[in-house]
Amino acid sequence: MATATTHAVGVQTIGRRLYSDAERARRDSTKWTLVQGILAPVQFVVFLISLVLVIRYLATGSGYDLATLSIVVKTGTLLLIMVTGAIWEKVVFGQYLFAPAFFWEDVFSFAVIALHLLYIFALYTGALGATELMYLALAAYAAYVINAGQFVWKLRLARLDAEGRK
């Protein structure tokens, strides 16, 4: 369905609605929506704690082990939300990844995952020193912030779409 709608706040969307009526119904009825709604803020809190620990290490040279552990935990939460997000996409859109409504978010998610896994690889192989590892983590975190922004924007568009349907 190709339509152009302008919402009360002046945001215009052109093209397919984010969710068809059937997709919206599946989204609202699946437990995976709740799972994503819980994991996203948990991951963000883990990110914030880790970011502080990484910056502390870079600023003071102390706390390497705690910063490293926090990055590993952040990577684990990222992988968990990616797997559960793929399941959510399958339930809502009928495919595990790259559904048209979230194509670019999924593409960028793979870049975020690649940077996090590159950190894990470099950590376990000793390919980078401590400071270089922390800068790699910061690069992964910068990509994560961009990707999180993409998803927050889509959440906003979904809310505007829902308001426009009322």
Shape: elongated
Taking all Cα atoms into account, the compactness measure Rg is 18 Å
H/E element sequence = EEHHHHH
Largest sheet report: 2 strands, antiparallel
- The overall pLDDT, averaged over residues, is 90
Residues in β-strands, percent: under 5%
| Uncertain parts | 1-14
Query: How far apart lie the N and C ends?
Result: 18 Å
Lateral strand order in the biggest sheet: 1-2
Helix count? 5
User: How many strand segments?
Assistant: 2
Instruction: Kindly give the count of domains.
Output: 1
Oligomer: single chain
Content-based structural category = mainly alpha
Amount of helix: over 70%
Describe this structure in words.
The protein has 166 residues and is mainly alpha-helical. It has one domain (3-165). It is built from 5 helices and 2 strands. A two-stranded antiparallel sheet has the order 1-2. Strand 1 (3-6) and strand 2 (12-15) form a beta hairpin. The longest helix has 36 residues, at 130-165. The radius of gyration is 18 Å and the shape is elongated. The two termini are 18 Å apart. The model is unreliable at 1-14 (pLDDT under 50).
